[in-house]
From TrEMBL:
A Pfam family that the UniProt record links to this protein: HTH_5
UniProt-listed NCBIfam families: HTH_metalloreg
Gene3D superfamilies associated with the record: Winged helix-like DNA-binding domain superfamily/Winged helix DNA-binding domain (1.10.10.10)
Origin species: Aquibium pacificus
Name this polypeptide is given: Metalloregulator ArsR/SmtB family transcription factor
Lineage: Bacteria, Pseudomonadati, Pseudomonadota, Alphaproteobacteria, Hyphomicrobiales
Classification via SMART domains: HTH_ARSR (SM00418)
Length: 114
């Protein structure tokens, strides 16, 4: 079984699953509501929902005959944390590169020779 971060990114890699998440961000939906207007069968949507649930991105309840789906509140925390760490590392690296390049350009700006 892949690690949770890999599962999250794998689930997000599919445009249909991202569209489902976007719809669920507007509020809870049943499987039938998610099938409407997608041109996909109920079993196909259910497979996408299973992937999203296994990745921890959605939760499924049980109310009488329906299984409403909703966004999992903490579902994107691991991915968001990883992206934030990468962004901080990149900004630090680019900052050091900018400083290095500025130091190389300084003698030329003062009329010095390279």
């Amino acid at each position: 079984m892949p690690d949770p971060l890999s599962q999250t990114f794998s689930a997000l890699a599919d445009p249909t699953r991202r569209a489902i998440l976007a719809e669920l961000a507007l509020g809870e939906r049943t499987v039938s509501q998610l099938v409407e207007g997608r041109g996909m069968s109920q079993p196909a949507i259910s497979k996408h929902l299973k992937v999203l649930q296994q990745a921890g991105l959605i939760e499924r309840g049980r109310e009488a005959q329906t299984r409403p789906c909703r966004i999992a509140p903490r579902g994107l925390d691991a991915a968001s944390g990883w992206i934030d760490r990468c962004r901080a590392d990149w900004e630090d690296t680019f900052g050091r590169m900018d400083a290095f390049l500025a130091g190389m350009a300084a003698p030329r700006d003062k009329g010095g020779t390279p």
